[in-house]
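quick one, two chains, predict together pls
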Amino acid sequence: MELKIKNLKIKTGRTLIALMNSSDARELDLHSMDRIKITKKNRTETVILDITQDSKILKKGEIIVFEEVRKLMNLRNNDKVSITMARKPKSLDYIKRKLDGKKLNKEQIEQIIWDIGHNKLNDIEMTYFTAACYANFLDDEETIHLINAMTNEGDILKVNSKKVIDKHCIGGVAGNRTSMLVVPILAAAGLKIPKTSSRSITSPAGTADTMEVLCNVTISLNKMKTIVEKANGCLVWGGALNLAPTDDKIIHIEKPLSIDAKSQLLASIISKKLSVSSTHILIDIPWGEGSKIEKRKDALALKKSFEKLSRKLGVVIKVILTDGRNPIGKGIGPALEARDVLWVLENHPNQPIDLREKGIKLAGHMLEMAGKAKKGEGEKKARAILDSKKAYKKMIEIIKLQGAKITDPDKIKVSKYKKEIVAYKTGKIVGIDNQMTCKVARFAGAPENPGTGVFFIKKVGERVKEGEVIYEIYAGSNSKLKNVEEAIDQRKIYKIK
Amino acid sequence: MELKIKNLKIKTGRTLIALMNSSDARELDLHSMDRIKITKKNRTETVILDITQDSKILKKGEIIVFEEVRKLMNLRNNDKVSITMARKPKSLDYIKRKLDGKKLNKEQIEQIIWDIGHNKLNDIEMTYFTAACYANFLDDEETIHLINAMTNEGDILKVNSKKVIDKHCIGGVAGNRTSMLVVPILAAAGLKIPKTSSRSITSPAGTADTMEVLCNVTISLNKMKTIVEKANGCLVWGGALNLAPTDDKIIHIEKPLSIDAKSQLLASIISKKLSVSSTHILIDIPWGEGSKIEKRKDALALKKSFEKLSRKLGVVIKVILTDGRNPIGKGIGPALEARDVLWVLENHPNQPIDLREKGIKLAGHMLEMAGKAKKGEGEKKARAILDSKKAYKKMIEIIKLQGAKITDPDKIKVSKYKKEIVAYKTGKIVGIDNQMTCKVARFAGAPENPGTGVFFIKKVGERVKEGEVIYEIYAGSNSKLKNVEEAIDQRKIYKIK
């Protein structure tokens, strides 16, 4: 059947979809969610069919394509295309197989990931896949296939080095901007560390948001390669690169039920690392009350899962459990966190000691993993690199290579709408709540407005007097400042005993 | 936040969705798939949020609502509405619970079905529900709750009688239009049988398509009530009524993977029957090679599931296994099947004996179930009603009440584009393939073009000579006839030995 293209110029967000008039669809005996082949000259693409009975939207003889299809096939309004029925993708059989509790082989997992990567599955079909992986689990072998398939579906950064080091933190701790310390320390030690990071989704700042205060983070893969060749390391936004791109699509599907199939969590993290050719990966699992993982046994179980994969994937994965109960650093929000990082690198009197020490700890482990320090001597070496300002200089080099905006922490702009919050009683600070801190910082405007957030004057372990300033809020406007003030119950943020 | 309505006039098909500009969404800290409350004066509705970054589609300060939301809230372009964040529906927790393999209680299942019924869940969320029910099964108690929740979510036809009888066939057999015999026989016997049927989805004709050749089948619930009060029975299209409406939504979600969770199959069938107040239900399970259920043990397992529910639901359910290997009747396609039915009711010499006998068999069981015949004497009574033309007269009465089109089988129009197919060898016909028959009839134009399809001259058990006409194809046009001829391999339809 020959139909005339009508471009809708609306994105579906993911799936390749075309819309046919119900009368045309009946003629070809096609139903909603069937697959059709659209052919224009020599180019053929299989897309998912949707059907409308509304002739105001679509007349007989016309076919609407959504933006993703238009772009892929370079279609113009009134282009004539031929439509034929296509088979359902084989991956649907494999997804059904997993939902039936059976095991998938390498080719089957590769086909599913290829179809997701090429927008050949719709939301319903992808959901069956995540549901099947969640309800029926993937075993180690299947997880390895998933990791490799997800890695190979995207671009790969080739690094001219036998050892490529990387780190990942499971998250859940406010502040905690250790990557921005670890990268310059290790790069200064001569190790290749092509770091990609994410932007914030539900936190007040991601590493990419924070680094963006200092320099550009939207960098092409080629540029990234050049920077790593010159400076050994970089700190770029992963979202701008086509690295393990199916991960984002799967995460989108997992969101409504906050599903976290372990196999997909592992695959998500490791495939991103493999796609930048990492050979040595440190995983930081913060745990404890108020953190993402509250119980030690859950943190240990996750550690074990990573370690099991390590052996089978042929890469070195080391997992450490860290204290996740309280925020790390003084500033919360992109600019305030960037300032903390530069203070630590400069060895500035204002520097947050907890962030400095955690950075040294992680870098120490990584130096040992990569053979740059003897067992037990990594931290010492990391501290020396930091103290000598070599890491600071390396960071300035990286910032300049990525397109510097600011290198002086005192020039980082924070919002002028500031409010000091005082202690509600006299005593010792025994805890600062991660989630409440995030809430306040986001409410104040972070990460959208980079100069907003929270700044801790007093931290856990310190003694305070009633009425003494314990933290500051930087909001995007006077009205936001008022709203935050009214909304917060500071007893829920600071625990004073 | 106050926003200005922009109606898109496009249906989502199911879910209530509104689209916000990414900058407005960020201000309220909202993400894709979050829930928002839209308030216009005193009317508030919770809908699912989608976010666009394309300011060509949606400017800051505007909100797009899809057609379902516009209609529900009676919104006009430029209406000012207030937007606030809403909680995620509780049913998402319950769906997660089932996906985790836990049991759901009555209230939890009711909440899920209410949310599906009110378009509060999107495709991803509904898929998690069907996947959870499929992978982790619903036990008998959960299935009962599901059936009741699905029934109560829609309208209920109240019938002024203690006994209301109904039947359902699992399908998979071409022709097999027994409802159109059973309804007039039982109604003539004084039993209430308010029959709703579906249209064809993948077959050449559903009962609703076939009945529509003779009269109107799109009937309101009130009109249906009046007809059943007058004539004891009716044969209407269920799709036009709001009976157990969540069923269609769940079926849509099950389609891509052809999932048939047993609990949902049972709930789908029984909730439709309970919504017309049925007290006595006969289930026909055709089985055998080439049928939907090929193995006797699978047919028996399904029979057992129905019978178990019967006791717990307080309705009488009887299940019979029938021969599903071959088509039943001579005509395949709406008009040809309608003609078969009238021929049987008229006791016409052309009548297909297999259809007549199957109708009598089912009606016999139902007469016994409802206490209108002693055990073992149902068929005799059904045959007498049929032979006496009482069933014929009853059918004419029902056709007239529904708005008659045709009552004389000889006036039913079949397509003039006809082709006779001859036997490819001499021998005995040992089988006619259901699926191939359906394919040919649909290819010829059924059910879209009601006068098209297949007509069997010779049936299973008969001896034929090579070159003798064994069946006819009625197509929608000369070109369709040619296409069908070229496409069919008659050895795949008729098995001659």
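Chain A touches chain B at residues 9-11, 26-27, 29, 31-33, 52, 54, 56-57, 88, 92, 95-96, 99, 101, 122-125, 127-128, 131-132, 134-136, 201-202, 252-253, 255-259, 442-443, 448 (CB under 8 Å).
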